[in-house]
Amino acid sequence: MHASLSLRRRLAVGLGATAALTLGLTACTSNEEPPATTAPAASAPAPAAGGNDEPGDKIVIGFSGPAADHGWLGAINKAAIAEAEKYSDVELKVSEGTNDANLQISHVETFINDKVDAIVLLPTDGAALTDVAIKAMEAGIPVVNVDREFSSTFAARVTVLGDNYGMGVSAGTYICERLGGQSDAVVAEIAGIDSLPLTQDRSRGFEDALKGCGLSVSNRVAADFTIQGGESATAQLLSAAPKIDAIWNHDDDQGVGVLAAIETAGRDEFFMVGGAGSKNVMDLIKSGDSVVEATVIYPSTQAADGIKLARLVAQGRSMGDLVETSVPRKIQLYAPVVTKDNVDEFIGSAFES
After folding, report:
1. Among 33, 46, 219, 345, which residue's beta carbon has the most beta carbons within 10 A?
2. What is the CATH number of the domain that holds 321?
3. Which family does the entry's similarity section mention (predicted)?
4. pTM
């Protein structure tokens, strides 16, 4: 069976607290003006005139991210640029993507020297970019930190994160739902780069969710978020495990190699859950002609959300759907499970591997 009402309820309860805010960034409908026949109370505040998407003061936002050598990172960059283009009051300065932390530091220093109004930064390495981000903040330039956190809270005005732990919880909950009651089920895991905190968080969430239904990871390998790494790690896994009931692969980009290894081995006795939410995986889910049955979203909208938030902060606006008058300090996005039942809701914004 596919994701049931029970699964949706469990995910909503289990992840609601860590998902933080999925609120829209425009004014809510309760701010609409009353009918002309009704006079507003003298003490009532003026309604929002068109909401936060109405043009404001002209601002310049600097954007820097890693090299787009991965489908998800390419989607991150494209979405950020597309979001900025929606606003006539935003000029976006984009630095060339790089995986060299020192070069990215110099890009941020250029933004500081240019006196941009805000910086959106997806760092190659959060710790390495912390000092220059603090320098920008001390210069009065608000920094929006995306995806990879800085090592100091003083380095960013706003941090936008995916939910790595929540991804693991979502994947484990789905597998528990599918294998219900099979205490002897063999569950395998194909992780990303084990030294990264994000991989560790995903694995921890997965393990915690499986414990809830009496399952555990029987076989585990780590790849490197590349197609080649996914293929070699999966070949190793399949060789070591003659029987598997379910696999969670952390990353849909490396999943291209994972699926190649599965095809080469001629194995199809299991179902697989992906991670991140690529279009090619969603196409397979929709077709039903694959071992891939679901994937867990790791939003590629994070930098686009960062652009939108940087605009609000630089223009002194608030988030229209909140009572709070300031943009929150940290926003964590939700990690929903995509199945054949709901794939049409997500496929339009999926990235290409």
Report:
1. 219
2. 3.40.50.2300
3. Belongs to the bacterial solute-binding protein 2 family.
4. 0.81
